[in-house]
Design brief:
The structure holds two protein chains of two kinds. Chain A is mainly β. In chain A, 0% of the residues lie in helices and 48% in strands. Chain A has no helices and eleven strands. In chain A, strand 4 (31-37) and strand 5 form a beta hairpin. Chain B is mainly β. Chain B is globular, with a radius of gyration of 13 Å. Chain B starts with 8 loop residues before the first strand and ends with a strand. The chains are: A mainly beta, B mainly beta. Chain A binds chain B through residues 4, 31, 35, 41-45, 48, 55-56, 91, 93, 95, 100-108, 110, and chain B through 32, 34, 36, 41-46, 49, 85, 87, 91, 93, 95-103.
C-alpha cells in the first residue's frame, strides 16, 4: 500500500514570495490533515479536511495560508506571502474513514524562507 | 479539553528498558491514548494505542492505570535506532482530532 505522498521535499524561497505544497493521502482515506512543525517543536495542526470539507481550521493563519481539497482526494497548502517565521516542515497526514484515529504521515516538505 | 504533559528528554543505554510517562489529567471517558515516534527528517509514526490496562505489540507496551490520568510507554531493550522523539496524544474534541505536544526526546547511548 502506497503511503502519503508529499511534494516538493524541500523548498527555499525569499520572504514575501508565494509557495505551494501538495499532498496525496493514502487511497480511500477520507480525513486529511496539514501540520506545521517548527524545529524542536511538535507538529501543530493547521487544518483538517473530511473529504472535501473543512472540519477544523482554527489554527490556520488565514491572512496568508490557504488550503483546499477540491475533489476530496489530494490537497494543496499555499502560503502567500511567506514570512521568515514560516520556515518549518509541513506535514500531511491522513486517516481512514471509520478506521479509528491512527494517522499516517507523509515525509514532509521542509520550507526555508530567507 | 485533554492536554498532555511528558518529560522533555530522557537518556538511556542500549539494552535497557525505557519507560516514558505521560500525564493527561483531563482525559474524557471515550478518549483513547496514542503514542507516536518521530525520527529526524521524517513524519511521526504510530507506535501504539490503548484505552485501559495494558496493550502490547511487537514494538512497545502501553500501561494505563485505572484512573486513566496517565499512561506509560515501555520500550523493551532499546537500541541506538530507538533514538527519537516520542509523542503522547489524547483527543482534543474527538478521536480524529488530536494535538501534539512537545514530545519526549529519547537518546539511547552505546
Amino acid at each position: 500500500e502506497a503511503g502519503v505522498a508529499q511534494s516538493p521535499r524541500y523548498k527555499i524561497i525569499e520572504k514575501r514570495q508565494s509557495v505551494a505544497f501538495w499532498c496525496n493521502p493514502i487511497s480511500g482515506h477520507a480525513t486529511l490533515y496539514w501540520y506545521q512543525q517548527i524545529l524542536g517543536q511538535g507538529p501543530k495542526l493547521l487544518i483538517q479536511f473530511q473529504n472535501n470539507g473543512v472540519v477544523d481550521d482554527s489554527q490556520l493563519p488565514k491572512d496568508r495560508f490557504s488550503a483546499e481539497r477540491l475533489k476530496g482526494v489530494d490537497s494543496t497548502l499555499k502560503i502567500q506571502p511567506a514570512k521568515l517565521e514560516d520556515s518549518a516542515v509541513y506535514l500531511c497526514a491522513s486517516i481512514q474513514a471509520g478506521g479509528g484515529d491512527t494517522q499516517y504521515f507523509g515525509p514532509g516538505t521542509r520550507l526555508t524562507v530567507l | 479539553l485533554a492536554k498532555t504533559t511528558q518529560p522533555i528528554s530522557m537518556d538511556s543505554y542500549e539494552g535497557q528498558e525505557v519507560n516514558i510517562t505521560c500525564s493527561h489529567n483531563n482525559i474524557a471517558t471515550n478518549d483513547y491514548i496514542t503514542w507516536y515516534q518521530q525520527f529526524p527528517s521524517q513524519g511521526p509514526r504510530f507506535i501504539i494505542q490503548g484505552y485501559k490496562t495494558k496493550v502490547t505489540n511487537e514494538v512497545a507496551s502501553l500501561f494505563i492505570p485505572a484512573d486513566r490520568k496517565s499512561s506509560t510507554l515501555s520500550l523493551p531493550r532499546v537500541s541506538l535506532s530507538d533514538t527519537a522523539v516520542y509523542y503522547c496524544l489524547v483527543p482534543m474534541y474527538n478521536n480524529n482530532d488530536m494535538r501534539f505536544g512537545a514530545g519526549t526526546r529519547l537518546t539511547v547511548k552505546p
